[in-house]
Amino acid sequence: MGIVREAFNTVTIAWKDLNELWRSKIRLFTLIMMPLLLISVLGFMFPSGYTMKHISVGIVQLDRGDEARAIVGEVIRMATSSGALDILSFASTEQAKEALMEGRLKGILIVEPGFSEQVAMGGRGSMRLILDQTSPTISLAVSSSITAILSAVSAQIAERGSQDHITAAISLEQESIVPGAASNPFEFMAPGFLATMVMMSGMSGLASAISRERELGTLDGMMMSPISRFSIILGKALSQTIRGLFQGLIMICLTMVLFGVRIYGSPILMLLVLLLGVLGFVGIGIIATSIASEQETATMILMMMQIPMMFLSGTLYPIEQLPAWLQMVAKAIPLTYVVTALRKVMVLGAPMTAITGEISILIIIAVVSISIAIPLFERAITK
Amino acid sequence: MEADIEVKGLAKYFNGFPALNHIDLTVYKGEFFGLLGPNGAGKTTLMRILTTLLRPSEGQAKVGGYDVVKDASKVRTIIGAVSDKLIMYNLLSAKENLRFFARLYGLKGNAIEERIDELLDLVELRSWQNKLVGTFSTGMRQRLNIVRALIQNPKILFLDEPTLGLDPQSQRFIKDLVIDLNKKGMTIVLTTHDMDEADELSQRIGIIDRGKIIACDTPSSLKRMQGVGTLEEVFLSLTGRGLRDSANEKVPTVVRHRRMFG
Fold first, then answer.
1. Mean per-residue pLDDT for B172-186?
2. Could B76 and A226 be called an inter-chain contact, meaning their C-beta atoms sit closer than 8 Å?
3. Exposed e or buried b per residue across B66-91, where buried means at least 16 C-beta atoms within 10 angstroms of its C-beta
4. Taking CA atoms, which of A10, A104, A131, B182 is between 20 and 30 Å from A180?
């Protein structure tokens, strides 16, 4: 009976909050616009195969044999027809490198000497891809495009020649590749942005929602009613969670439609990860705001926590790129586990068994933070 | 007479500053009690403790026989409160607001709708039941705010300046309403700066100043004791004529600035 009553009170408060949100067109508009703007801007900032067009890549043929000419011809045709890359021929590697240094190229594809001979003998012809290190995201995009084109070219040649072995005819050696990147660079970023959005909604949203009710005086109405503080927090958290998930859904749809991000895993698993993440963030948000003497301080504390979390959690770049000591810090951040689990599910199609570690840690964080948050909240509002 | 509110040695400190300084007070069952005091005297702190919104630092307070700290949830079932702020959501209709609070008080099914209809009729807002509260006039909002506090038919009602900023018609309506509730047996505690209102409504009046109850009696006895003709004169003679927001007042900063939650 007690649990049913708590659940009923929780839903009553959450429903009231969502009803208010629905009625406030400006708040609803902002809620929808935030993920739209965020994902659009970031999506175009981190070019994907869908947004990146006409990136200049140099090609250097150090082998002039028939096989090399045929493959280079196909590469140029496919790259040009898709519009993703503009291929420029260079006589020597040095000339191409010079162009890359000057910023006229974003990558150089080199057909190594002896390519044709190796392929003709049934071996693997060597190619080398040099990437512009100053722009890791564009490097990733160039790399994925070239890799995709080369595998398509190999497949075409295999079909024409009815030779099975030709599918592995090209070995591509890459220089300066960012570790951990997905084939579409934005597929690497999207789970991070999704998790960050949910974190911000959970941590700041609840604190400001409670603060608003406090200032209006309506929080007193709930506090004077014979319901538990747990119901109040859970009700507010539930409405914030629904809002956060709604924003997350908008972001997922946008990343799929605009930037070609594919989701390989289970949407239910994604939802579970996001839900656990929100609960943890809500708890942390309440703790931060309960110990703050005023809202401005609370906002500063939350900002201080959110910004490093965003940069250290692997949202923008793989954690492996961080120095060892910062990797340790990253592992203490809840957002890291949300991002990692989401990325595994979304990009790799990982099943539940592959993310049990992250899920367990998120459950622990959620339980511990909410358990600390509730008494702190009660003390803060009645002290 | 049976006591509905019993306060003994109640103190509340904010960073060492005594907002309430060991006060004793009794309000009897069915009584209409007026609590007066200058700004910052401790009225709101006392009301917030009695309505379980604040924890006392020392002493004890019982409401309806229940301790406000140990039995807070029981206290909450028998009290209604109208604070100085409207406890209403502007983006919900009158009915949705009342339905929300009815559910928090454990009302269910048809009982909710029947109670809401009864209360809306009481404050003549039935025809406005589906309109958003944000579209209401100040008087309408306050009428609704009062019946919101009556949703679970409380035994004790706390009113913090319920007629502040209202036109004379709305003031009269609310005064008649609370007089009627008191006649039906509801214990009412009223804080106000309107001395005429306190004089008219209250059977007894307590005057609080600097965290202490400095006088407590019927309005007529207070006037007689001070040898003056109005309650305002009683108030000024007991609390002084100096302004309370002057630089000489030692009100600590911590009390003034808004906290995140409290």
1. 95
2. yes
3. bebeebbebbbbbbbbbbebbbbbbb
4. A104
pLDDT one-digit tens code per residue, A48-76: 555 567 788 899 988 888 878 888 888 88
d(CA B31, nearest CA chain A) in Å: 22
Residues B152 and A224 sit within 8 Å (Cβ to Cβ):
no
Interchain contact, B132 vs A23, CB within 8 Å: yes
Please say whether the beta carbons of A210 and A237 come within 8 A: no
Residue type, B249: E
For residue B220, what are its two tokens?
A: 């007529």
Residue B32 and residue B48 in contact, taking contact as beta carbons nearer than 8 Å:
no
**DSSP conformation class of B258:** P
Nearest Cβ partner for A298 among B55, B86, B260: B260
The span from the CA of A125 to the CA of A129, in Å, is 13
- Residue in A5, A24, A294 closest to B260 by CB: A294
* Mutation target vs A (from B104, B132, B156, B258; most A CBs, 10 A cutoff): B104
Which of 302-361 (A) contact B at CB < 8 A? Answer: none
> pLDDT value at position A303?
81
Q: What is the pTM of this model?
A: 0.71
Look up residue A56 and give its two tokens: 């200049």
What three-state secondary structure class fits A136? helix
Would you say residue A103 has pLDDT above 80? no
Contacts of B91 in chain A (CB under 8 A): 19-20, 23-24
* Inter-chain touch A382–B105, beta carbons under 8 Å: no
Q: Which range is least confidently modeled, A279-293, B90-104, B139-153?
A: A279-293
Do A247 and A25 touch, CB atoms closer than 8 A?
Answer: no
pLDDT value for B122: 93
Taking CA atoms, B231 is separated from A230, A236, B222, B238, in Å, by 45, 45, 8, 11
**Chain A residues with CB-CB distance to B144 below 8 A:** none
Q: How many CA atoms, within 13 angstroms, populate the side-chain half-sphere of residue A125?
A: 31
